[in-house]
What does this fold into?
Amino acid sequence: MSIDIDTARKVAKLSRIRVEEGDLPALAEKLSSILGFMEQLKDVDVEGVEPMTSVTPMRLKRRVDEVTDGSQQAAVLKNAPDAREGFFAVPKVVE
It folds into this structure.
């Protein structure tokens, strides 16, 4: 797929990127090469290939999924400008 200058201009506008008129042909060429590479990826046979999260095989650390207070309440509330009864106190905004 080939990107023309008008499409490159539209992509730049949608991306909120200011591109000078003289730079649009180079941008269109770069976008076309990116799309060409993506087309090549369609041809790769990935049948039987397991998805991976890293290039090195490793098991993720696991922990018991249990709810705790984190034992940090006092340290967190120490930074609050106003804390009452173990909670952040905020000004009333709705009557």
Observations:
- The CA atoms of residues 6 and 41 lie 26 Å apart.
- The chain has a mean pLDDT of 89.
- Residues 5-42 form one domain.
